[in-house]
Write a structure and sequence with these properties.
By secondary structure, this protein is of the alpha/beta class. The chain has one domain: TIM Barrel, CATH 3.20.20.70. It is built from eleven helices and twelve strands. The strands form three sheets. Strands 2-3-6-7-8-9-10-12 form an eight-stranded mixed sheet, with helices on both faces. Strands 1-11 form a two-stranded antiparallel ribbon. Strand 9, helix 9 and strand 10 form a beta-alpha-beta unit. Helix 6 runs parallel beside helix 8. The longest helix is centred in the C-terminal third of the chain and has 22 residues. The protein is globular. The N terminus is likely disordered. The structure holds iron/sulfur cluster. The site of iron/sulfur cluster has 12 residues, from helix 2 and helix 3. Keywords: 4Fe-4S, Cytoplasm, Iron, Iron-sulfur, Metal-binding, S-adenosyl-L-methionine, Transferase. Pathway: Protein modification; protein lipoylation via endogenous pathway; protein N(6)-(lipoyl)lysine from octanoyl-[acyl-carrier-protein]: step 2/2. Belongs to the radical SAM superfamily. Lipoyl synthase family.
Length: about 325
């Protein structure tokens, strides 16, 4: 048996079983959860937490950590894993940057994550709205660190990256989502190597911006394929890797091929660290924005330690 075979138990459990215990989360009931929801609704902001039916919403919103989804709640793509609505999006909300900044201020956020739907209908893919949001956050909450999670800006990548990098987010995240073999079925509108190149370009434009990317496990990927994705990410100088369990939002979406055990996630995490990522988050409930503020602080400290070590060596 080689590494390309399906990992044997206890790396995974058959999906005919109900969700394993390690996936179960508490229902969102806290008062703070309600306050976060009311604030977002009041400002007319969408969140990927709700739109993607994220299992961590109870925990995150209780801590006032919400990931804002700009540019509407309708996506121009139809990826097989994603719960966001597909169709013809509405006009861009010109008040959105101010509302995002107001939410960050009211929630007292030290770190904010901003993502968006794909807007292939817009001439710039929505890049200018990211720039406006970053600028507005810098103006009104200058101490809030900013992480953006963008689409691939298909056919308009270069100008989009140039504009966004010039605005200076602290972290630029773009998810590869899965191994390249799965792209035709899971992420048909995207190209694996274009996504990698996007992150490489961000680093080339500004090496100080941390780059981040993630994949979902449980979509039939094999161990060696995951290792290859890690190597590809390191070649593109990606700083931070996230890995989490794919969960099927509805029966219309791609099926879960396996539930990867926490031990297997730990093993992947150890391999990723050995491959040189500055930061790694790997667990069944890891999502791009899960514990993003804490992970950002750790990543920044890791870079400082690495630079100090290099300087000491002379
Ligand atoms: S993990 Fe991210 S998307 Fe999920 S609830 Fe937390 S902040 Fe929202």
């Amino acid at each position: 048996m080689n590494d390309l075979s399906t990992p044997p138990s206890p790396d995974s459990v058959p999906v005919t079983q109900r969700k394993p215990d390690w996936i179960r989360v508490k229902a969102p009931v806290s008062r703070e959860y309600g306050a976060t929801r009311d604030l977002m609704r009041g400002l007319g902001l969408n969140t990927v937490c709700e739109e993607a039916a994220c299992p961590n919403i109870g925990e995150c919103w209780t801590k006032k950590h919400a990931t804002v989804m700009i540019l509407g709640d309708v996506c121009t793509r139809a990826c097989a894993f994603c719960n966001v609505k597909t169709g013809m999006p509405r006009k861009v909300d010109l008040n959105e940057p101010a509302h995002v900044a107001e939410a960050a201020a009211k929630l007292g956020l030290e770190h904010i994550v901003i993502t968006s739907v794909d807007r292939d209908d817009l001439p710039d893919g929505g890049a200018s709205q990211f720039v406006k949001v970053i600028n507005e956050l810098r103006r009104t909450t200058p101490h809030t660190t900013i992480e953006i999670l963008t689409p691939d800006f298909r056919n308009k990548m270069r100008p989009a990256i140039e504009a966004i990098v010039a605005a200076g987010p602290d972290v630029y995240n773009h998810n590869l989502e899965t191994v390249p073999r799965n792209y035709p079925t899971i992420r048909p509108g995207a190209r694996y190597y274009s996504s990698l190149r996007l992150l490489e370009e961000v680093k080339a434009h500004n090496p100080l911006i941390f780059t981040k990317s993630g994949i979902m496990l449980g979509l039939g990927e094999q161990r060696l394929e995951v290792h290859q994705v890690m190597d590809d990410m390191r070649s593109a100088q990606i700083d931070f890797l996230t890995m989490g369990q794919y969960l099927r939002p509805t029966p219309k979406h791609a099926e879960v091929k396996e539930f990867v055990t926490p031990a297997a996630f730990n093993a992947y995490g150890a391999i990723a660290r050995a491959k040189g990522f500055l930061q790694v988050a790997a667990s069944p409930l890891t999502r791009s924005s899960y514990h993003a503020g804490k992970d950002f602080a750790e990543m920044r400290a890791a870079r400082e330690a690495k630079l100090a070590k290099a300087a000491a060596k002379g």
